[in-house]
Amino acid sequence: MTYVFQFGIVFDQLPLLLEGALLTIRLAATAMVFGLAVAVMCAYLRTSGPKPVRVLVAAYVEGIRNTPFLVQLYIIYFSLPALGIRFEANQAAVVAMVVSFGAYATEIVRAGVQSVPVGQVEVGLALGLKRFQIYRLIVLFPALKAVFPALASQFILLLLGSSVVSAISANELTAVANSLQSTTFRAFEVYIVATVMYLTIAVAFRGFFAALYWIVFVRGRER
Amino acid sequence: MQVTVRHLAAACAALFAVAIGSQAADAQALDRILKDKKIRITAEVTSPPFGILDKDNKPTGSEVETARQLAKDLGVELELVQVTGPQRIPALLSDRADLAISSLSITTDRAKTVWFSSPHGALSIVIGGGKNVNIKSAADLAGKKIGMTRATLEEQVVPKVAPPGTNIVFFDEHSATQQALLSGQVDAIGGAAFLINELGKRNPDKGIETKFTVVTAFYGIAVKPGNFDLLQWVNTWVFVNKQNGVLAKIYKEHTGVDLVDLPNL
Lengths: 223, 265
Prior knowledge:
The complex is a heterodimer of chains A (223) and B (265).
Chain A: H1 7-12, H2 14-48, H3 51-65, H4 69-79, H5 89-115, H6 118-126, H7 131-161, H8 173-184, H9 187-222
Chain B: H1 2-27, H2 29-36, E1 38-44, E2 52-53, E3 59-60, H3 62-74, E4 77-83, H4 88-93, E5 99-105, H5 108-111, E6 115-116, E7 121-130, E8 145-149, H6 153-161, E9 167-171, H7 174-182, E10 188-192, H8 193-202, E11 208-223, H9 228-243, H10 246-255
Parallel strand pairs in B: 1-4, 8-9, 8-10
Antiparallel strand pairs in B: 2-3, 5-11, 6-11, 7-10, 7-11
């Protein structure tokens, strides 16, 4: 074919792309921390909460898992202002990502919670611990250990899914790539570089999670 | 192992054939279109009045009707390739479309990547916003949040006139940009004058008006670089339909205003 690659144009704008990549990492990392907190709470409420709360959590989880992320994003950014709730683009992106990741992670953590043998819970009861204490002190750690790989995979999906938030003018990696593509018209080169960046970030996070797993669940137990 | 190598060889051969084939096709795009009896033209349907979906969800608008007329005059079937604004040029370069007829303004930057015909229409880029937003000239943009769509003319011209301190944010589609204005996420937006008028008409409660004109531009039909024969035919078509008034009629019908005198490229 006759296509001539011109990466020079793209590399001139590398600082912009790196800035976008940094925002992608920040969005995803923030969403992970808060999303995980949501998931740990919701998993508890879903397994041990009062009946109405269980139904409410189930509705949240199923509602989010069965609707497109982009639509959720539009509702938060375009529709909520009508109710007087206004988020900046990046805030709206984080909120949407927390809500979405929280729902998926709730199901993952719940699976972990239910994998903990009943005997351990009964030990807690015998020691006179409260329900939430049992959850916090006995159940949560082995539950998270059991589902850690699944949570890590879900986080990578969250990270890659963040590319969608360019639609509401959040200025992350895909948004920067789109803008660059539209001013330089070098779509091929721009998206190849963006792809390599996503790949690098995702692989780096996988390494980080492997290390985290070892530090928290392997070495932490040996002591 | 033997099977793998043989498969690989077959795949390579196939790839080579495709590469050779597409190269041959590029050289004589017009012949191929006439032989296939089909021309593929971009349709951007979120950019009224140039391209919109009608009540039956069918593409229409001045640019889509222009594409229909062109295909009819060429005597071939029309295949509309739906694109978003930023995909208009990539659709040509990746061979998904033969022509881009999607209010693509003629700029020197774009001409580095695609080849333009003589202009077949004109549009003004304006800043539009609600009545309560105080913008009278470019200087008033300072401190305001201005939305616009990526890969459009406004993306190229508005930042050049905007003073420092203007917060410009970019969306991927006109519909998202307009929604941002309607929901109050931005103070004003840059866009084609028609688009702002249409938005004001459809949402009378928002009091959306044109604040000032940034630039008036001409748009043309674009082809992939190298398609001399196709471009030559398109230029002839534009010339003929400028003379016989067909282009002016389509323009008036969809935009509600008269077409200005079009210069030649």
